[in-house]
Amino acid sequence: GGSHKIDVPYHAGLNPPSFTVELWVRPLRNGIDQSPLTCRESSPRRGYYFYGNTTNQWSFRTGNGSGVDAINGGTVATGVGTHLLGTY
Question: Global pTM?
Answer without folding.
Answer: 0.85
